[in-house]
Amino acid sequence: MNIIISAATKEEVQTGYVGRQLREFNYRHVGEYPETQYIRLNARDGEGSVVGGIRALVFMYWLRVEVLWVHDQLRGTGIGSRLPAEAETIALALGAKNSVLETFEWQAPTFYVKHGYREVSRIENYIGRFHLLLMKKRL
Q1: Which terminal residue of the chain, N or C, has fewer Cβ atoms less than 10 Å from its own Cβ?
Q2: From residue 74, how far is each of 55, 92, 117 by CA, in Å?
């Protein structure tokens, strides 16, 4: 069999064919689940400038936090706590039961522990001497 591997076309990406095929495969093992729901929230100052944000998704009843950022000058003001709290409220309404995220040791592992997350795995020396943590939380 002569198989050629090439970049997906824009149309192939837009139709989501490969993702649908994986979903059908997954359904045979865990039953049907809702499609991925994206959560995109921004925190804005009085002038409308973005000073923080969270990017997350709900997939297979898990909230997966991909990005949480707060402007350096506004850290410690509560914005960083409000963003995931709002994302968790939305995720719960979408049926999520748990949350998962990755964070580097220099980012915010103590912040996440303070908010109910616990380390479940770590990869040592992920970049240089720094480790990457996988953390989860029951919602």
Answers
A1: N
A2: 18, 27, 22
| pLDDT tens for each residue of 12-27 | 999 999 999 999 999 9
What is the rounded CA–CA span in Å between residue 52 and residue 72? 9
List residues bridging with 53 in a β-sheet. 42, 69
80, 57 contact by CB (below 8 A)? no
DSSP of 83-125, one letter per residue? HHHHHHHHHHHTT--EEEEEEETTTSHHHHHHTT-EEEEEEEE
> Can you tell me the distance from the alpha carbon of 107 to that of 15, in angstroms, rounded to the nearest whole number?
36
Q: What is the pLDDT of residues 31-67, one digit of tens each?
A: 998 889 999 999 999 999 999 999 999 999 999 999 9
How many other β-carbons are positioned within 10 Å of the β-carbon of residue 135?
Answer: 22
Widest Cα–Cα separation across the chain: 62
pTM, two decimal places? 0.86
**Neighbouring residues of 95: CB distance < 8 A, sequence distance ≥ 6:** 34, 58, 61
Instruction: For residues 12 and 26, give the distance between their C-alpha atoms in angstroms, rounded to a whole number.
Output: 20
